[in-house]
What we know:
Elements (H helix, E strand, L loop, with lengths): L2 H4 L3 E3 L2 E3 L12 E5 L3 H12 L3 E5 L11 E2 L6 E2 L4 E3 L7 H7 L4 E3 L27 H24 L6 H11 L7 H18 L21 E4 L4 H8 L3 E3 L10
Parallel strand pairs: 3-4, 4-10
Antiparallel strand pairs: 1-2, 5-6, 7-9, 8-9
Helix pairs in contact: 4-5, 4-6
Amino acid sequence: MDPKQLFSTNLIDGKIVASHIKRQCSPLPSVIVIGAGISGLAAARSLCDASFEVTILESRDRLGGRINTDHSFGCPVDMGASWLHGVCNENPLAPLIRGLGLTLYRTSGDNSVLYDHDLESCMLFNTDGHQVPQQIVMDVGETFKRILEETGKVRDEDPDDMSVQQAISVVLNRHPELRQQGLSHEVLQWYICRMEAWFAADADMISLKTWDQEHVLSGGHGLMVQGYDPVIKALAKDLDIRLNHRTYGVRF
Length: 252
C-alpha cells in the first residue's frame, strides 16, 4: 500500500478521520518540523498531506530518533523502541503497521514467543555462567514487590516528586530487613534493571509520582519482526528532510 494513502489521514482517539487541516491554495504555507523521530515524521506527514510545505531539520545523521533498527548481524535488531504495546485500533501505530503488512511476534497471550512475565519463568545466570537458583529469583522478586509497595507510602507522604531510586533508598533505610546481600543483591539489581528497561530510563530519572500511572491498552503486546525501520521509512517517504542540521533554541 502507498504510504501516502496510509498517512493521508489523522489518527485521533484510535479512529481514522479525515484531516481537519484546511487545504490552502498556493502559495503553500510552510512549516519547519524539528526532529525526525517518529513524532516529528508523523506530524510532517500529516502537514504535507494537508498541502503544507514541510521541511524537517534533524541534528543526527539518521532518521528515527529513539527508534534505531540495526542490521549488522544480518537481521533487524531494534536498539531503541521495539515493542508495540496494545495491538488495537486505540493505538495509532497499530493500523499503520497493519496497513504496511508488517508482522509481529506476539509476546503476550497463548501464542507468545516470550515467557518472562512471571517470576517462575525467569532463568538468571551469574558471571560464571551458573544458573541462579530459581528460589532466590522468586524470593527476591517478592522482596522487590514489597519495596515498590513501600515506595507508594513514601509518595503519599511527600508532596514533592522524587526519583524511584531515591524512594528505594528511603525504603531500604527504613526497612533494613529488605536489603539484599551477595547474589540476592545482584538479583535485586536485575529487577531494578528490568524496570529501567521498561521505561527506557535510569531509576534515578523515573518519576515516583507517575511511574505506575500508565494506561494499558488492550490487544496485548508484539515485537516487530522487521524492526520499526519500515515504519520510519514509510513515514519519511518523499519528505524534505535535512540531516545533520542542529537547531538551537532562543530564550527571550
